[in-house]
């Protein structure tokens, strides 16, 4: 079995998960060196990644949701060196919504998820890099603003424990009649849009907020960002958005959205706005966002729709 040395960086909320413990013991029994490190507070994931690099670990696994994946990937991407010189990246989906894992087609049970990492060679993947107010941020899945961001922020922890990803959907429906548009200019090479939007997706992956498919055609290895701008709603467009949320209809989304694909995009908002990067809220008026091709290597299903080999054909 290759690689020979793995390190699982496990979100502390899942430290007592019996299924995770059993899956880890099963792989160890087959001769794989698999260390486990648990995060407790901010900065732990980065420290664990740093230690993994020093120890020459072959594969780092993020055990948690989209936020944990982002933290681990960001810590890897922050280090110098090409993707081939860094440990490969795996994901053990243990979050509330697991938006990235769902879109990528990763198993949702610990044992099959770890088996996939063992069976599938890592593939080069792109990352989203965001610069705002002098700081640099990394994102694996999707940056969202407006409606999707408010849904994520406002969804109650207790509701998430009871309903899981459905909690985001319930919260989203409750907000439809009171969405305040954000005034901004969004522009890149050959694209320039100005107006009020109620939802924004800058996608490397396809969905966020518990299943909101804001960027339904995004690929993780095409060197491009998928941009979806849902403009402010009037009259029947509110009902159209409700249909898009309840039934996940891409066609309905297309009726209320402006969509494009760019290597980089700039957002200039009239007032400070929040951009949610896989669970990390970043507040600014000016965002410079670019796709960094082939920044990491990740273990994904060979038939994942996020990969160019199986997703829509897109030229680099």
Task: Spell out the key features of this protein.
30% helix; alpha+beta; disordered C terminus; 316 residues
Reconstruct the topology from this structure.
Layout: E1 5-11, H1 18-29, E2 33-39, H2 44-54, E3 59-64, H3 66-77, E4 88-93, H4 99-104, H5 110-119, E5 123-132, E6 135-139, E7 142-146, H6 147-154, H7 157-163, H8 166-175, E8 182-188, E9 191-203, E10 225-231, H9 236-247, H10 250-256, E11 257-262, E12 264-277, E13 280-298
Parallel strand pairs: 1-2, 1-3, 3-4
Antiparallel strand pairs: 5-6, 5-13, 7-9, 7-12, 8-9, 8-12, 9-10, 10-11, 12-13
Can you characterise this structure?
- Helix content is 30%, strand content 35%.
- The protein is built from ten helices and 13 strands.
- The chain has helices at residues 18-29, 44-54, 66-77, 99-104, 110-119, 147-154, 157-163, 166-175, 236-247, 250-256, and strands at 5-11, 33-39, 59-64, 88-93, 123-132, 135-139, 142-146, 182-188, 191-203, 225-231, 257-262, 264-277, 280-298.
- α1 packs parallel to α5 (110-119), α2 packs across α3 and α6 packs across α8.
The major pleated sheet works out as:
9 strands, antiparallel
What proportion of the residues is helical, as a percent range? 25-40%
Give the percentage of residues in beta strands: 35-45%
Cα Rg: 19 Å
Secondary-structure-based class equals alpha+beta
- The succession of helices and strands, N to C, reads EHEHEHEHHEEEHHHEEEHHEEE
The termini sit apart by 33 Å
Number of strands: 13
State the assembly state of the protein chains.
single chain
Helix segment tally: 10
Shape: elongated
Mean pLDDT: 85
Give the uncertain stretches in residue-range form: 158-171, 311-316
């Amino acid at each position: 079995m290759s690689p020979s040395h793995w390190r699982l960086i496990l979100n502390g909320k899942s430290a007592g998960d019996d299924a995770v413990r059993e899956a880890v013991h099963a792989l160890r029994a087959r001769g794989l060196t698999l260390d486990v490190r648990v995060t407790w507070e901010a900065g732990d994931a980065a420290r664990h990644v740093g230690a993994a690099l020093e120890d020459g670990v072959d594969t780092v696994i993020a055990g948690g949701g989209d936020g944990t994946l982002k933290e681990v990937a960001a810590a890897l991407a922050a280090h110098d060196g090409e993707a081939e010189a860094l440990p490969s990246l795996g994901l053990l989906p243990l979050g509330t919504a697991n938006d990235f894992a769902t879109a990528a087609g990763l198993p949702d049970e610990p044992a099959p998820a770890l088996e996939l990492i063992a069976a599938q060679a890592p593939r080069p993947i792109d990352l989203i890099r965001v610069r705002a107010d002098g700081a640099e941020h990394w994102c694996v899945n999707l940056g969202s603003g407006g409606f999707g961001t408010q849904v994520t922020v406002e969804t109650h922890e207790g509701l998430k424990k009871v309903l899981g990803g459905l909690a985001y959907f319930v919260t989203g429906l409750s907000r439809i009649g009171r969405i305040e548009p954000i005034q901004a200019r969004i522009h890149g090479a050959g694209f320039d849009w100005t107006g009020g939007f109620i939802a924004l997706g800058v996608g490397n992956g396809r969905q966020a907020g518990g299943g909101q498919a804001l960027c339904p055609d995004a690929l993780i290895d095409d060197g491009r960002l998928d941009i979806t701008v849902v403009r402010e709603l009037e009259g029947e467009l509110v009902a159209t958005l409700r249909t898009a949320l309840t039934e996940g209809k891409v066609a309905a989304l297309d009726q209320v959205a402006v969509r494009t694909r760019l290597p980089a995009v700039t957002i200039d908002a009239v007032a400070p706005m929040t951009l949610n990067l896989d669970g990390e809220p970043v507040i600014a008026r000016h965002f410079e966002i670019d796709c960094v091709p082939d920044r990491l290597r990740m273990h994904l299903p060979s038939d994942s729709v996020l990969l160019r080999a199986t997703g829509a054909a897109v030229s680099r």
